[in-house]
Amino acid sequence: MTEPTPPVRTGAQLGLMSCHHCGTVWEGAGDGECCARCSTRLHARKPDSFNRTWAYLIAAAILYLPANLLPVMITKSLFGTQQDTILSGVIYFWVSGAYGLAALIFIASFLVPLFKLTALTLLNFMAQRGSDWRQLERAKLYRILEVIGRWSMLDVFVVALLAGLVRIHGFAEITAGVGIAAFGAVVVLTMLASLSFDPRLTWDTRAAAKRRKRKQQDGMKRGETVV
Fold it and tell me: Which CATH number belongs to the domain containing residue 72 in this structure?
């Protein structure tokens, strides 16, 4: 018969606090005190993490639509002016037979930002509720977001490269459209949201808070001090 899994105890519950600058772990330090090693202010969790993460996510979600609907690249040539969005570029490469390039742009420029928005919204919502649902999987999901986030700027790099290379006066000229600014803002905002979210909040469940409160009450009854 398998033994029940013991409840997860976080460093904050054990009275431990790490310095985010030098990594030193202190015992019994209060929130807002200075690190005795590097003088950085100590915080058990990132200050105001939920509100800042929601603000960045909402702003990124608002800009996600114009980033995909407005032109990201404007091509002027002897044959006229052509405006391309992210999805029209994907369709063009797919019809042209460049399936790999079309799939790469679709995944990096459309699916990855959408995945980051959805995943961060889920992580922030569940952490704010103090839910203990699939905590380990949620922690792994945050690590995945950190890995794939760097590929979100692919379209910005492509447009910047083409704008620098294709500039033949009177024949052809490529410039960045309004959509690329919105797309770049979405990427930056999702990166800021990821940085603002504290993954340690995933383990701060309501059940753990209740256990800590019950432990403190029991200690007060016995005349003990619980850190």
Answer: 1.20.140
Instruction: Determine, yes or no, domain membership for 140.
Output: yes
Please determine, for residue 212, whether its predicted confidence score (pLDDT) is greater than 60. no
Pair 28, 63 in one domain: no
Over residues 134-163, mean pLDDT: 74
The whole domain housing 15 covers 11-44
Does residue 32 have a pLDDT over 80? no
Q: How many CB atoms lie within 10 A of CB 35?
A: 19
| Residue 53 and residue 39 in one domain | no
